[in-house]
Amino acid sequence: MPSLNLKRTSKARNYAIGIGLLLVVVFLWTFSNFLTQDLFEGGYDKPFLVTYLNTTAFAFYLFPFVIRKYWASYRKQDSISTGTYQPLRQDLSSTSEFTIDDVPIETRDTPLTPRETARLAFYFMFLWFIANWTLNAALGYTSVASATILSSTSGFFTLALGRLFRVETLSGGKIGAVLTSFTGVILVSLSDSARDHPVNPASVVAMNSRPIFGDFLALLSAIFYALYVIFLKVQIQEESRIDMQLFFGFVGLFNVFCCWPLGFILHWTGLENFELPSGEKVIAAIVINMFITLSSDFLYVLSMLKTSPLVVTVGLSLTIPLAVVGDFFLGKPTKGQVLFGALLVLIAFSIIGIENSKVKNEQDREEEAGVSGQHHQARLGGDLS
């Protein structure tokens, strides 16, 4: 039983670390939202280019991997040239009879190879880019309230897809928590829509002409957010199986080479004219956003692997109460409706945490019962012999 207690303690510690990382992400994304809002309201309304630059920042994660590979190769060559003894070992990954890449990702617990990591990053990149780009683009065609409400439905899709792929358990508490969080988001968004926000005149024309298209983009963003967190949880399961820096490095690299044609299509169709950022304020906002994306999305995926897709999806709604605090310090008035909506979001997040604790306790009891049964059968076998 000591090993089971140790495993339970390790799971609890990982879960607590995941919650802590999620709170850091909430803070970073809230700060990024204020920067992006100020950027768009200032006239630089370029959702595709902003998303493209933010995703490109992930490529910086490849530098440590390249340096490690170069250093390892240098040390190997140095050992050979100096005649240092090298122990004879069999490398299964290079034999002709068997290669580790032949084993499906889903059927083994060994760490992912660089090739598997690159393949996973390639698929993830499209899901991640579409989720972020559609949400940014939605703000140019519909109201902030509509975009926020529809994008917050990702909790419903995450719960449904998580149940379908057996990475989430369905319970009345979780359904109630998602509904509570959604209600809180609606209250805050409706209050926000009643304010007077300065916006880009070009966005006003688009907003008045195609609000249904904007609503569709926001809903599409919610679906793809749910898809990519479930996709990663199903494919990776535990964070110990993947080099997260290498993974995001490949995401940034694939983004650089695969997504730029979309920019030409948008420019040619007139949906988003290409314009390089100019002015110290705009450039500073974009650079800061790139660094926030570089760190926060890394922590976000790590948090999801340590907790669950539903926890991080609902947990990101915590940006609402944190934004309320930010508005307070910026001298913006806060209505009681907003405070009540933020409170509902906090309550929903707490319910999800309690429900997950119940599920983990039940799983631990089932595991202990299974081990006890095995020990009992082993003792009976010994007595019979």
Automatic annotation (TrEMBL):
InterPro entries: EamA_dom, EmrE-like
Keywords from the named record: Membrane, Transmembrane, Transmembrane helix
Ranges for region Disordered: 363-385
Major subcellular location class: membrane
Membrane topology, as annotated: Multi-pass membrane protein
Annotated transmembrane regions: 12-29, 49-67, 120-139, 145-165, 172-191, 211-234, 246-270, 282-302, 309-330, 336-354
Subcellular location field: Membrane
Residue span(s) of domain EamA: 111-189
GO cellular component: fungal-type vacuole membrane
A Pfam family it matches: EamA
UniProt-recorded name of the protein: EamA domain-containing protein
Organism the protein comes from: Serpula lacrymans var. lacrymans (strain S7.3) (Dry rot fungus)
